[in-house]
Amino acid sequence: MTITSPSDIAAGLAADQADIYLKVLTAGKAAGSFQSAWMATGNPPAGVASPLYTAGSGYTCDKSTTGALNYVNGAVQNWLAKWGAYIGVGACTLIIADRLWSCSGMGYAAQTWTVTTPGNLPARITDSGLGCELIVEQFVAAGAASGTLTCNYLDSASASKAGVIPSVVSAPVAGQVQFVPMANNLGIKQLTSVVNSATWTSGTWGMTIIKRLAEIEVAAGYGKTLDWAALGLPKTLADACLMFILCVDGTTARTIFGRCNIIDK
Prior knowledge:
The protein has helices spanning 6-14, 228-231; strands at 17-24, 34-36, 41-43, 78-87, 92-106, 112-114, 133-137, 149-154, 160-165, 176-179, 190-196, 205-218, 222-227, 235-236, 242-248, 255-264. By secondary structure, it is mainly beta. The strands form three sheets. Strands 1, 3, 4, 13, 14 and 16 form a six-stranded antiparallel β-sheet that branches. A six-stranded antiparallel β-barrel has the order 2-10-7-12-5-15. The longest helix is centred in the first third of the chain and has 9 residues, at 6-14. It starts with 5 loop residues before the first helix and ends with a strand.
């Protein structure tokens, strides 16, 4: 790190890369629900559903993965130094995160879905997943559901843990996200299996590991910009697969757009 003063940040902003984004999301499930922009159309283009949980390919993501925010790796170190966001309809909290690992194709039968060769997190993660989070990501809409969802994983200390969603969302919409409550504050380095406690009606779903960078709250019909101090100057790791997740205030479809200013210092 070569940032020693605000003047260094100002110098970085004078030569920053301003990465424009615009994503058109489908309607959310309900007020307070989370919606992934990964497969939403716009800029960056829509991503695709992740490899099947049985694919055994490692499933890791990086900035070359279709759907990731377009930016260039810095010569020294990238930092998110300013972030602007606008939403036309409905207030939201917008999260920007590094998408690390993802799989799809888990079904709605009451059974254990064991990940084939889950592999490691991408090489850019050097702390074994400390601070990383696990989400259920709905690549397609699904039918009525009930019961618990137990996610078995290894934390950053390589201890076997279980994160449990005590009551799953019934009939989740396409793009819906459910955050998995983690067993401790040591994050996740590897997902091994997921267990449904009850048979659900229909559909499939996937699991994704993310590393949150920052979040911004935006009122309906307004824009908001956070500078480096408000953001906490989060480090943007080389090859990070940057994506957006929204917490919405209703069921109206959303369009978000704005700019991420990334510096190299």
